[in-house]
Amino acid sequence: MPKNKNITLVISTMRSGGAERVMSKLANYFASKGYKVTLITFVAPTEKPFYTLDNRITQLPLNCLSFHKNMFVYGLNVIKCLYVLRKALKKIESDVVISFMESVNVATLLAGYRLKIPMIVSERIDPKYHILYPTKIQSIFNKIRNKTYCWARALVVQTQSALNFFPQSIQKNAVIIPNPVNTSKYGHYIVKETVHNIISVGRLCRQKDHVTLFKAFAKLLEKYQNL
């Protein structure tokens, strides 16, 4: 059994997104190594995870995921969620807490303030595309994020560009860890010379940044004109 055996993971949902996929792999890996793993989500207990989770993982849905157009009501919901999350973190008494996604990271750091639990937060997209609120409110949120991220033991980002987005006060405790890719499934795959197709799968929205992908494809076409 590992020395630091109690790990808490926090994410808003375990639906079919990319961050959720990585979280499921992380949770399953820790469980396979003998850690006691608690996975906190903000969804209702009736919502089942999209990705398969190890039976040894304790799932703790807080049932506080609530969006509302009225900012006052939304603010009350956020306060409620922070209270419930802090109560859960106190009860679990984790050796470390790891959270995913910007808004969840901020909530986790606020809820865990002065609990003396090491916290690691992880950005799962390019932060410059993470616009959650109207401009004025987003500006306030950004200041809160930058303040709370300084409380984290570490910040994980996936690229140098994402790291450069943050002020130096945050960068000094940050590390770049790219998305995990299981290459064992494709180690014996042979690319036929007759196949010249490259496929991109993803929502056509600003956050997915297909513009950069198209520019990359254009550079490939300059060298490989049979694509």
- What name does CATH use for the topology of the largest domain? Rossmann fold
- Number of helices in the DSSP assignment: 7
Q: What is the molecular shape? A: globular
Which value, in Å, is the CA radius of gyration? 20 Å
Helical coverage, percent range: 25-40%
Number of domains: 2
Second rung of CATH, namely the architecture of the largest domain: 3-Layer(aba) Sandwich
Strand order of the largest sheet: 3-2-1-4-5-6-7
- Tally the beta strands: 7
Order of helices and strands: EHEEHEHEHEHHEH
Mean pLDDT: 89
Could you give a quick summary of the protein structure above?
The protein is built from 7 helices and 7 strands; from the N terminus they run E-H-E-E-H-E-H-E-H-E-H-H-E-H. It is α/β, with parallel strands linked by helices and 227 residues long.
List the helices and strands and how they pair.
Elements: E1 6-10, H1 18-32, E2 36-41, E3 58-61, H2 71-92, E4 96-100, H3 102-111, E5 119-122, H4 135-149, E6 154-157, H5 160-164, H6 168-171, E7 174-176, H7 210-223
Parallel strand pairs: 1-2, 1-4, 2-3, 4-5, 5-6, 6-7
Describe this structure in words.
α2 packs across α3 and α3 crosses α4. This protein has helices at 18-32, 71-92, 102-111, 135-149, 160-164, 168-171, 210-223; strands at 6-10, 36-41, 58-61, 96-100, 119-122, 154-157, 174-176. A seven-stranded parallel β-sheet has the order 3-2-1-4-5-6-7, with helices on both faces. The chain has two domains: 6-183, Rossmann fold; 184-223, no CATH class. The chain is built from seven helices and seven strands, in the order βαββαβαβαβααβα. With 227 residues, the protein is α/β, with parallel strands linked by helices. The protein is globular, with a radius of gyration of 20 Å.
